[in-house]
């Protein structure tokens, strides 16, 4: 891969998974005895990415301990959101300050990132650079979602993301973004959806479709069903 650094968003409260997340941060919830964060890191390392930056806020000491004890191959840095949680856009912007990279790969660890995503992420990166994009999202059709209650986020028209009433596609939690894109957003705390909405208006937000079945730790009910797989 051309991209050398991946970010993982690990700051959230995970309230929809209470009571599990009352004393365990969502990225450390285990499926088949493996924390979802570890599954995510394993995929990133399989892509040949050497540097990983994670952000933390809620139950941050457990994330620190987990990373220190696991001794992953990659160089993992932990950046704290600070005194208050920064939301997705603010968290990414804060991590960007600790990276010299112009383009980074970003993951939400509450998707189950098995290694069958490998080829599609490589293809998504190829599209990102060949078309000289600023942001590209990995999307999946709603019917491939294990959680049938999830609503769609977007629609796709020849890799261009649009919004309409159909919203057949769900954001998987993986994207590539250029750091310059965030320089216009001066608030410390903002959602990455603000960036996406601005790009959609300019017809500059792109998507890449995955054919993988989509497993996501949405809530407690979904977690219990995933354990039965």
In short:
The protein has 229 residues and is α/β, with parallel strands linked by helices. Helices cover 28% and strands 24% of the residues.
SSE topology:
Elements (H helix, E strand, L loop, with lengths): L4 E6 L19 E2 L2 E2 H11 L4 E6 L3 H11 L4 E6 L6 H10 L6 E5 L10 H13 L4 E7 L13 E3 L2 E3 L6 E10 L13 H10 L4 E5 L9 H8 L2
Parallel strand pairs: 1-4, 1-6, 4-5, 7-11
Antiparallel strand pairs: 2-3, 6-10, 7-10, 8-9
Helix pairs in contact: 3-5
Helix-strand string: EEEHEHEHEHEEEEHEH
Q: What structural class is derived from the secondary structure elements?
A: alpha/beta
Mean pLDDT across every amino acid position: 95
Q: Per CATH, what is the topology?
A: Spore Coat Polysaccharide Biosynthesis Protein SpsA, Chain A
- Across the major sheet, the strand order is 5-4-1-6-10-7-11
CATH architectural designation: Alpha-Beta Complex
Strand content: 15-25%
Radius of gyration: 17 Å
Count of helical segments?
Answer: 6
Shape: globular
What's the β-strand tally? 11
Proportion in helices: 25-40%
What number of structural domains do the residues give? 1
Which CATH class is shown?
A: Alpha Beta
Distance between the termini: 32 Å
Q: Biggest sheet: strands, sense, closure?
A: 7 strands, mixed
CATH H-level homologous superfamily name: Spore Coat Polysaccharide Biosynthesis Protein SpsA, Chain A
Low-confidence stretches: none
């Amino acid at each position: 891969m051309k991209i050398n650094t991946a970010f993982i968003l690990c700051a959230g409260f995970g309230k929809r998974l209470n009571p599990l997340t009352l004393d365990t941060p969502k990225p450390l919830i285990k499926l088949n005895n493996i924390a979802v964060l570890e599954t995510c890191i394993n995929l990133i390392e399989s892509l040949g990415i050497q540097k990983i930056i994670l952000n933390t806020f809620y139950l941050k000491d457990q994330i620190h301990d987990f990373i220190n004890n696991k001794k992953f191959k990659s160089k993992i840095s932990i950046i704290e959101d600070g005194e208050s949680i920064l939301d997705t856009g603010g968290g990414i912007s804060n991590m960007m300050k600790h990276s010299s990279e112009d383009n980074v790969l970003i993951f939400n660890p509450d998707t189950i990132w098995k290694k069958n995503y490998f080829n599609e992420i490589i293809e998504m990166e190829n599209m990102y650079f060949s078309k000289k994009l600023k942001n590209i999202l990995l999307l999946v059709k709603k019917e491939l979602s294990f959680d049938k209650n999830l609503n769609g986020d977007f629609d796709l028209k020849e890799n261009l993301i649009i919004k309409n009433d159909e919203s057949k596609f769900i954001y998987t939690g993986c994207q590539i973004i250029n750091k310059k894109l965030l320089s216009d957003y001066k608030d410390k705390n903002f959602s990455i959806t603000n960036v996406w909405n601005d790009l959609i208006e300019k017809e500059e937000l792109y998507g890449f479709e995955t054919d993988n079945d989509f497993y996501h730790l949405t809530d407690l009910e979904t977690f219990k069903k995933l354990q039965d797989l």
